[in-house]
Write a structure and sequence with these properties.
- This protein is mainly beta.
- It has one domain.
- Strands 1-2-3-4 form a four-stranded antiparallel beta sheet, with no helix packed on it. A three-stranded antiparallel beta sheet has the order 5-6-7, with no helix packed on it.
- It is globular and about 50 Å long.
- The protein starts with 12 loop residues before the first strand and ends in a 12-residue tail after the last strand.
């Protein structure tokens, strides 16, 4: 089971899942208080892999230590999309910030390090 961790004891909800061409499973988590004006916080995680199992069926393996690849302060991520494969993979996030509207943003995705989006 994947549980997103948050600051100050907050436990954000998983708001989106995506699987890339290599079978990596990505999750977005978002924290939003019970009001439409935030403050919002989100993170994007690499949480595991999926593929063919030894018996020919599907197999999902969740990581014991999910890797946070981005922290997005001030937005509520509610969708993920992948384009490309391998080192050419691009990750896009979509937000819906209630009264503030939404946006679509491409995140730099360096599979060897944790990254944070700029501004």
């Amino acid at each position: 089971m994947f549980t997103a961790s948050g600051e100050s004891g907050r436990h954000p909800a998983v708001s989106a899942l995506e699987i890339d061409g290599g079978g990596r499973i990505w999750a977005a988590s978002a924290y939003a208080p019970d009001r439409d004006r935030g403050p919002f916080h989100s993170a994007v995680w690499e949480i595991g892999r999926c593929g063919a199992g030894a018996d020919g069926g599907g197999e999902v393996t969740l990581s014991e230590s999910p890797r946070r690849v981005a922290h997005l302060d001030g937005v509520k991520t509610e969708s993920l999309a992948m384009e490309g494969s391998g080192s050419e993979t691009q990750l896009f996030v979509g937000t819906d910030d209630e009264g503030f509207g939404g946006l679509i943003r491409r995140l730099s995705l360096d599979t060897s390090t944790t990254v944070a989006p700029g501004g």
